[in-house]
Fold this sequence. Notes:
Layout (H helix, E strand, L loop, with lengths): L1 H24 L8 H30 L1
Amino acid sequence: MTWDLALIMPFLIYLAVVMPFRLCFANEAAVDTGIYWFEFIIDLVMIALSVSDSLRELLTAACA
Length: 64
């Protein structure tokens, strides 16, 4: 649990600050910049965690 908090909380805080700015001002990160790839990695981590949680729930339900 500590690992999840240490990994996810900085991403969530970053997204809570940046996403409203990007949506309100139609300001997108340019491709081939560091910030674009940082946001891309955040998206991948969130998707991977979501999929792993879903798989864990499915396996738990199947084994019960």
